[in-house]
Specification:
Oligomer: homodimer
Mean pLDDT of chain A: 95
CATH class of the largest domain in chain A: Alpha Beta
Shape of chain A: globular
Number of helices of chain A: 14
Helix content of chain A: 40-55%
Distance between the termini of chain A: 55 Å
Number of domains of chain A: 2
Largest interface: A-B, 37 and 37 residues
Strand order of the largest sheet of chain A: 1-2-10-7-8-9
Order of helices and strands of chain A: HEHEHEHEHEHEHEHEHHEHHHEH
CATH architecture of the largest domain in chain A: 3-Layer(aba) Sandwich
Amino acid sequence: MQQTRLDTARIRAARRVIDPVFLDTPMYRCEALEPGLGCTVSIKLETANPVRSFKARGTELVAGMLAGHASRAVVCASAGNLGQALAWSGRGRGLDVTVVASRFATRAKLDRIRAWGAGLELVDGDHEMARERAAAIARCDGIRLVEDSLDIETCEGAATIGLELVDTEPSFDTVLIALGGGALATGVGHVMKALAPAVEVICVQPLGAPALTHSWRGRRVVTTDSTDTIADGVAGRRPIPAVLDDLLLVADDAVLVQEASIIAGMRMLLDHAGLVVEPSAALGIAAILEDRDRFAGRHVVTIVCGSNVDVDAYHRWVGAAPLHTP
Amino acid sequence: MQQTRLDTARIRAARRVIDPVFLDTPMYRCEALEPGLGCTVSIKLETANPVRSFKARGTELVAGMLAGHASRAVVCASAGNLGQALAWSGRGRGLDVTVVASRFATRAKLDRIRAWGAGLELVDGDHEMARERAAAIARCDGIRLVEDSLDIETCEGAATIGLELVDTEPSFDTVLIALGGGALATGVGHVMKALAPAVEVICVQPLGAPALTHSWRGRRVVTTDSTDTIADGVAGRRPIPAVLDDLLLVADDAVLVQEASIIAGMRMLLDHAGLVVEPSAALGIAAILEDRDRFAGRHVVTIVCGSNVDVDAYHRWVGAAPLHTP
């Protein structure tokens, strides 16, 4: 394939930098999901770690590099998972971490960012406004800006998931990847194309936050004015050109799913896999639900990428039906 | 220490027989739980695998041995998790698996036993009656009876969790282990006493199913006439003498907890760790909740041993409060 910005040798080396608590995560077939989905389904579970998402694979690389530098201050914008992960990785290395987030972000995520000891600044707008503010802080204070999906460490950290996938027996046909800024998709996609090119790489984004999918389809950056989705972790409006370039090289498809399918996916993961997940982590199941014929008879891996939810919102989304079951 | 029936070298060898999907499970500190518990808490997560409990570590050993024999039929009594695990391990090796269970067993567990292709026979009584019936089937048909906690494979399979715990950095002070028939407690306890004797081994059982705890305290087998607990996985009435002998050698304490504490533990694991667990898996958290002073300042590991619940019952137990939160 043409070259992405990512490097497979560097991704292998990243495994030696990342705290092992984030590596070699569970990967298992979940047959209880299969009657409802019509295909073989395996779960790659990225929630059973201190920050309950895959994001620390990337922040461990960022923090590992900064720990050797004179300037130990760092800032990022985050919908909540990157911020938690950077706060966790920074705390262990004595970094001064600032996270900028929307004041509308998931409360549980903001609470954990504070609990990990990071400075938290809230902006009165969405994630794109948080990105602008984080960049301004970095410029003013002359400190390191961690930009999710643009910074190669965030992509190559996520890409270590891909290494674990290709080591799996038996092999699989398709991997479904939540598409937000693109770090997870370009990371895992790069490894698949490099080491397991027969595997189909499908990115999944909410219809209510379709900017990067539209960009991928149009082969040029398309922005949107707003987002409307419960999948807070993937609700971006302004794709990054360099990330789109990589995504064009590694993604076989990018699909959009409805909110109702995301909720149905969350409920299936609860009912049949015993997993509480955040909306972004149910995008893969949602994609299967919306196009069963496409996946029929195939072995599909879905990356369950995070479980940071507000419990009351989670119950509103998925709780009603089982509670009224006699 | 005096010799238990278990053998550390055999436990190490067991790792080569058990399907890797059940090994090297996540172990991580869960700081969000700590303000509510007053101690450092790490989770050893045994639910992220095809059968959603630790039981397959043992059934893999049983099935591995049977696969080399002429007789390929096997029967066990089960509250549901052993049966699922034996069905899973047997299916892959062409074994003819029969599971005997109480008709009052958790529906989700019975459904999965059938789904894994095992024969399922229900008895109109509790788990002790299922044990009697399974033994009768084994005698009549001349087939292998797998008796949980008595058969050394069930203990040594569970003991592989202990090997993973002692390999952990940083080390910890106490391990909390759900106590049912005793396989998990004697298995993990054996490894702790052999390889990490400074770690305190505390077994936790429901007040409503206290037979083995009373036996441990009295140093002789004590039975009860009935059980009354939602923790179906540990609701035995007739401890096995040989298992009690081992437990007396490896347990530093055995404590009993109330149903309300088990439910509070389940809710804490949902709210602060994002984990859906079955009641037995919340016994460790329940023990901390009932005796915070004892654990204050210590680093406690709790083994989250299973997540097979009926979703409607689960919501009845833990769902009410978050749903009524504004």
